[in-house]
Amino acid sequence: MTTNRTTTDSDRSAAIDGVRGLAALSVLLFHAWLYTRLEVSASARETTLDYAVHEGRLGLVLFFVLSGFLLWRPFVAAARGRRPRPGAREYLVRRGARVLPAYYLALIGSVVLLWGAAETPGVRLPPAELLPLFLVFAQNFNPQTVMKLDPPMWTLAVEVSFYLLLPLVAVVALRLPRHRVVQALVPLALLLFGVLWNIDIAGERSIVAGKLLPAMLPYFALGMLVALALDGRAPFGRRAAYALLVAGIALVAADALWQAHGAASRSTSYAFRIWRDLPGAAGFALVIAVAAGSAGAGTALLRWRPLAYLGTISYGVYLWHVPLLLVARHLGLLSLHTLPAIVLALVLTVPVAAASWHWVEQPAVAWARGFTRRWRRPVARRERVAPEPGRG
Question: Who's near 246: CB < 8 A, 6+ residues apart?
Answer without folding.
Answer: none
